# Entry
Amino acid sequence: MALLDALRRSGGVWFGWSGEISERERRTPKLQHHSALTVATLDLTSDDYEDYYNGFANSTLWPLFHYRLDLATFDREHYQGYLKVNQRFAHALLPLLKAGDHVWVHDYHLMACGEELRRMGCTSPMGFFLHIPFPAREVLTALPTHDVLVRALFSYDVIGFQTEGDRDCFLDYVVKEAGGRILGHDRVQAYGREVVVAAFPIGIDAGAFARYATTREAGEHAARMRRVLNDRQAILGVDRLDYSKGLPERFRAFERLLADYPENRGRASYIQIAPRSRSDVQDYVDIRHELETLSGRINSEYSEFDWTPLRYINRSFSRRALAGLFRIARIGLVTPLRDGMNLVAKEYVAAQSPRDPGVLVLSRFAGAARHADGAVIVNPYDVGGVADALQRALNMPLAERKERWRTLVEGVRRDDVMAWRESFLERLYAVR
Ligand code: GDG
# Structure
C-alpha cells in the first residue's frame, strides 16, 4: 500500500512472494504488467512455507523481535530454509534489475536478500527497511545466528528503522558486539562497510483515509453500528489476531473497567475486530482459544438481555467500513505489547470528525507513541491502569478531546506515508 502509488508514478518492479504454494520450484518469477509498474512474484514450496515463512520468519524472528523469547523457536532447518528462500529471491530478482535501478527491500522476511545480490555482483544502491521493532542487544543475542544476520544487513547502503529507539538498539549491537564505529551524519562503519542507519517512522495516507470515513460504505457501517449501540459509547480495537497486539490484556482491562467503574455496565460496548493471521502457527491457535475463553467469560458475567459488553469479531472488513466504524467510536483502543509503528492508531485519528473526535488510548510500546502527544498513553501490562485510562477517556469533555485530536491529526498529516517514502528514498538516492 505504502509503495504502490510511488511505483505507479516512477515505474518499477514490485517483487515478492505470490502468497501461493506450489511444489514446482520456479527460478523465474511470474510477471504482470500494469503500465509502468511490473509485479513479479514467486511461489513458495510447502517446505519453504514451513521452514522459511511459518518457521524462521514467524516462529523465530517475529517473536524474538517482539521481545517474546518465551515463544521463539530456534531450529537449524528453519534457518537454512530462510537463507535458501532469501537466496532464491535474490537470484530471481537480479535479471530484472537495470542500470540505474535502486533496490528497496522490506522487512524481516528478507534480511539476507541483499547479501546474496551483492555476492552475485549487484552494485545497485540498496536500502532495507524493518517494519517491526529491532530488539535490545541482550534479546537479539539469544538468536544463535544473530551475528550472521546483522552482518547480512551491512550489504545494504541504507538501513531504516521505525523509531530512534529501534535504531539505538541496532547501533548498540553494532558497537558492542561487532566492534563497529558511529561516524556521525547517520553513518556507521562495521564488517568492512560504511552504511547509513536512521529512523524513518512510517505513516498513512491521511487524506485518503479521512475521505474513506465519509464514503457511503463507511456511513452504512456506522449507521448499523449506531443502531446496535443505541446511544452507548463504543470502544473499538482493530488488529491482526497476533500475540504482539496485547489482546488478552486488553480484554482484561475492559473487564476491569466494568468491575471497577460499574456505571459503565450497560453504557459502554467494546468491539474488537481481529482478522485471523498465521493460523498455521500453534501460538496463533493458542491465543485464539484464550481470547474465545476470555470474551465468553466477560459476556456471560456482564451481559444483559439488551446489552452485549464485548463483540469479538474474527473477520476482516473493507478499509472504508473500518473508517466508518473508527469515526463513531468514542475510544480507539490500541494497546500492543510491542509494535514497530501501528498504523491503526494513525487511521483512527485520521477518521475522526473534527466536531466530535474520539480519544486514542495508545500503548507506550507502539512506535506510534513516540509522536502522539494528544493520545492517552498507557502501559498495556498494567490492566488496572488501562481501565483507569478508559474511564478517563469515556468521560473526557469535548473541549479536551478536540484539543488532543488537533495535536494528533497534525502529526498524522505531516508524518504521512509520502513523507516516509520520500525521506527514505532521498537517503537511498544519495548513495553513490
Ligand atoms: C507491520 C508492523 C507497522 C486490520 N484489520 C483489517 C485491516 N487492517 C489493516 C489496518 C492497518 C493494517 O491492517 C495493520 O497495520 P499495523 O501497523 O497496525 O500492524 P501490522 O500488520 O502488524 O504491520 C507494524 C506496519 O507493519 C507498517 O510498517 O506499523 O508495527 O507490525 O492498516 O487498518 N484492513 C482491512 N480489513 C481489516 O479487517 N481492510
